[in-house]
Fold:
Amino acid sequence: MADFSGKVLALAGGVGGAKLALGLSRILPPHQLTIVVNTGDDETFHGLHVSPDLDTMLYTLAGLSNPETGWGLAGESFRVLEMLNRYGAATWFNLGDVDLATHIRRTQLLGEGATLSEVTTELCQRLNVRHRMTPMSDDPVRTFLKTDQGDLAMQDYFVRLRCEPTAAAVTFVGAEAARPSDEFSRALDEADLVVFCPSNPLLSTGPILALPAVRERLGKGNPARLSVAVSPIIGGEAVRGPAAKLMTELGHEATCVGVAKMYQDICDVLVIDEQDSESAPAIVSLGIRPLAAPTIMNTEEDKVALARLILELGGGFQHDE
Ligand code: GDP
Ligand code: CA
Structure:
């Protein structure tokens, strides 16, 4: 049993992040964990505020997620979308019938003046999610990609065009003026252990790190805090999604060493997959401690085992002090 008694801040996007966050939530009591979620993917569809990564995290922690896809709800149907299609609406973004209730409720509460943090807390409470999850910011931040098919909003690129365009740059519109949410800011001050979940470093943790002063506040300068990242890149490939393709297109090395370079100033330990153990010396030379371990999380046992390994690192670090 991990005897880690400190506070954990986990940074996450959607599917990859939610896997590890679920593992952490199975071990840690609610008061020890804050999960901060990317909102750069947020988009308005059919007049509704959709927060894809918050929804993935919410459904995962609530035990409602679709185990096949990792996103959306289990047992979902798409009848509303079929009808919207008959009306001539653009229906390339998959919104399930039950899922739509989340977006309707979120949009309604935002319209009544609630912040996205408040809405998230309300949705969590209603679904009996006791661990704290919070949007990275209550201010709008939108991820755009500059590509050979023009400037594309994140969902346009990711879902409508299936990540096919070649990207030249990623931008986070609104990030400079956005503030970290209150819970995020509190966790930045209080965390004893920071965990970078194995999320897309460009599209998921990228927007979080683009918020003012976040990189500095996460910096390695704090001797009382350990920062552990898990590589989403295994054997030069993403487990799923465009992370490796995008890293290559944007001039990064699409390996766990490339991930280490992106997190060089903010990460003490990088957990790499056991099949990448030969990359360990290159990571050491970047000033990061590599730890090779099984990092493919298919089952709940896999998720808990990886979470436990990270908390043991944190526990060992606490005792070393
Ligand atoms: P998205 O917002 O749904 O795209 O999700 P994230 O950004 O959180 O996660 C996508 C990233 O997670 C991809 O780069 C995947 O390679 C990575 N990923 C997904 N599943 C796993 C896994 O089981 N282990 C590891 N190490 N990475 C994973
Ligand atoms: Ca996402």
Q: What stands out?
A: The two ends are 20 Å apart (CA to CA). The chain has a mean pLDDT of 97. The chain has 13 helices and 14 strands. Residues 13-14, 41, 52-53, 204 surround calcium ion (ligand 2) (CB under 6 Å).
